[in-house]
Amino acid sequence: MALPVPNFQYLTSLARSVLASVTSGTLLLAVGAMIQRWRSDRFDRRVRTLNVQYGLTPAALLERKYSAECLAKLRVLPLCNLELLLEPLLLKCASSLPLANVLREICLELGLIDVWQRLILGQFLPLSFRQALSYPDGLLHFFSHLHFLLRARSARNLGLLRHQASWPILAKALDDPHPDVQQVALRSLAALRQPQSFPALLDRMGKAAAQNHSRLSLHSLKAAMAKFPLSQALQLLPALRHPLPQVRSAAAEILCEMAKREPAETRVLFQYKNVFDRELGTLVRDADPEVRAIAGEVIAQLGLEVSSSRARQGFQDQTSYGH
Amino acid sequence: MWGPLFEPVLVFFNLLILSYFVVGNGVYTALMVLSLRAIWLHSRRAAYQGLTELRGSSLTPAVTIIIPAWNEERIIVETVRSALGVDYPRLSVIVVDDGSTDSTLKRLATAFKLAPAAQGYRPALPTSPVRSFYSDPRIPNLLVVHKQRGGKPDALNTGINLCRTPYFCCLDADCILERDSILRLMDPILSSSRETIVSGGIVRIINGCTGRNGQIVKLGLPRTPLERFQVVEYLRSFLTGRNGWSLLGGTVIVSGALALFQRKAVMEVGGFSADTVTEDMDLIITLRRWAADSQRDVKLAFASDPVCWTECPSSRAMLTRQRRRWQLGLCQSLWKHRGMLFHRRYGIVGLFSLPFHLYVEGLGTLVEFLGYLLVPLSFFGGLVSPALLTLFILLGLAYGGFLSVGAILLEEMTYRRYPRSRDLLTLLAYGMLENVGYRQLILFFRVQGILKFLVGSHRWEKVMHEGQSLSPGSTDFTSATSHLSTGKAA
Fold it and tell me: What's the confidence (pLDDT) of residue B389?
């Protein structure tokens, strides 16, 4: 069978058009890269100018050196510029509670907390195209499939500012259709440490362990719940009896981390000594080696007097010993 | 002009070149488009990434960094210093000196004031004998192992045997880790509800940068064209190629220079194998195979922000060695796992990723190389018109430029590591020119790699870095004042 002889004329015209497209595409990409550099530089300059203009530095905020006049000026700033101005300060709130407290007051004054709460609930603000262009993520408002970025960032902001009253909205965000929003809401709830939100997380933990494709990972839930005060430990009791070993071990780990963080608070649990003694004593004999191993660690952390035979059983367990 | 036998051969070959060109560039363009969206989204998501929480949580799993070293006296101290300086809550570093004949061990001992230590060793993975251990109580998370020479996979397996953490990170001895790289590698593992057994990051070129105390403090481009072309090549390979394959679920290469592995999974597949000279690629394909065969729903993640900086070869001789080894390793890995090719059980890896690597990266090298010889022959034989030949050459050159410039745009839209506008313009210029000369040079080295594979060579060619980008550091770990100099010409 003879091989098809290429049609030179057709190939030449095809190659010519592809070459033209590729060359213009390359030039477009190169120009795009240069425009991107110019935009980023301009954006950096704008943030610096705004900072100088309004003097909102962490030091000034901590010393409450911002005036009513400054707040009035900020109030008339478009939302896009306000967020630009506050973003670096918000990021610093993660490691500074005093800064978070001051910034929370300012954000409340400026109505930003309300805006973020509404964004999480999917109520987006009308934004003109011009306004959107002046804001790095402004165009996101026009693409509904990218709204999750704005919802997640709003959830992050509420957590960073430790805005306690926002916990019901954040708890609701755990059911957001996008996993990113769920994840950020979870972290924000952990930052708030609101006792009322704990049962919602506990419920998610059971679901995460049962469903292979749960949106929230068991580790994320564990890490978030471990940040809650030890006073929530009683609520973990049903999880210690959960039929799934992953949930039992996760609950034990959470308990252990809570006790490690607040060793002085373990005495609070002494009034429920018998309950914990019974539950942890059962875990020491659990069928799952991982659960047994963690149970031993929890007993040590809580300083509970698990009956001697049970404790001995635990110490003879190789897995527990290794752990 | 050509005989009746030769003409169909030439026509067939021209069609083969055409298909190689269309398939290769088509897939790479698709990968670039996919990466563009994914990297843009990733950079936006960075605003709410929970690294602070990861850093602060005592539930964040411990990680061991394993550094295999053989005759790395010049840079090993800086590498270990950078590994120890990584910002991660529970971190250990194990340096495996694989029977170095230079003063690698001595330099480590001096720099970190190490003394012989007693340490139990249970070779769960078989390795060559371990001779001694060194540690210092003031740096409890550092352990140096001196063993008999057994090669890089053997050294890595020794590290895995000594590792007591659920995850380990392999780090080449000539690499500098960014401070938050391990946190960033761990993030996709912990935030995913699926079991993630590997998390890979990107490797960037250190030549031309300045560093201090095992960290990069000033970024810049290298001086020589050879190194600059490699900067563009790395950007394209990591930001476009690996990112795109990861999105498709077809990752078969995760750079061994920076990757986080689940210890349990690696132990189950028997650790790193010495069957190939690219043990990282081999391990990834083996893990893929193991997961499919045992019907485990596991994930291999890739993130474009955990960064490790490595020194690229600054001379042609060393570049030859490196690329020859990479091509040899690719051929060996594809041959070793040939049973996975076109096999439905292995999903996108078996049906698309491995065949693509075989056709475009493996056989394609020969096709392209022969193309440089046979297309002119076709032209002289009247099988290709002059206009078509010229257009085809121009198209080849332009398409390479298109992909490279696309990768630079990706970098600019997201990480923007090179702060000076002059650097951006230089990168763009090198991106456009990469296919003129540099690509052909690399192709020549790759053909040598294929020939080595065909003659059954299995020799590991060590790349000696000559650029002096990473100078030996100060001997005092805590108050080190050493710096990574600014490159050969600086």
Answer: 79
Instruction: Give the number of other Cβ atoms within 10 Å of residue B366's Cβ.
Output: 15
Paired residues of B212 in beta bridges: B215, B483
Using CB atoms and an 8 Å cut-off, which of residues 9-38 of chain B contact chain A?
Answer: 11-12, 14-15
Q: What are phi and psi of A125, to 5 degrees?
A: -80, 145
Q: Where are the domains of chain A?
A: 40-162
Over the stretch A300-318, which tens digit does the pLDDT of each residue have?
A: 777 765 544 555 555 555 5
- Which positions in chain B touch A25 (Cβ < 8 Å)? 402
CA distance to A241, A294, A316, per residue, from A217 (Å): 20, 20, 33
Min distance B400 CA to chain A CA atoms (Å): 10
With beta carbons less than 8 A apart as the criterion, state whether B64 and B468 touch: no
Q: Is B1 on the interface with A (CB under 8 A)?
A: no
pLDDT tier at B2, thresholds 50, 70, 90: low
d(CA B116, CA B134): 4
Q: In this structure, what token pair is assigned to residue A282?
A: 């059962």
User: Which residues pair with residue B18 across a beta bridge?
Assistant: none
Residues from chain B that touch A221, judged by Cβ atoms under 8 A, are: none
Chain A neighbors of B191, CB-CB under 8 A = 183, 217, 219-220
Say if A10 is an interface residue toward chain B (CB within 8 Å). Answer: no
Structure tokens at B132: 């001694």
CA B217 to chain centre: 23
B295 has a chain A CB within 8 A of its CB: no
What are chain B's domains? 22-53+170-356+461-473 (3.90.550)
Give A41's contacts in chain B (Cβ within 8 Å). 421
Name the one residue in this structure whose structure tokens are 């394909």: B285
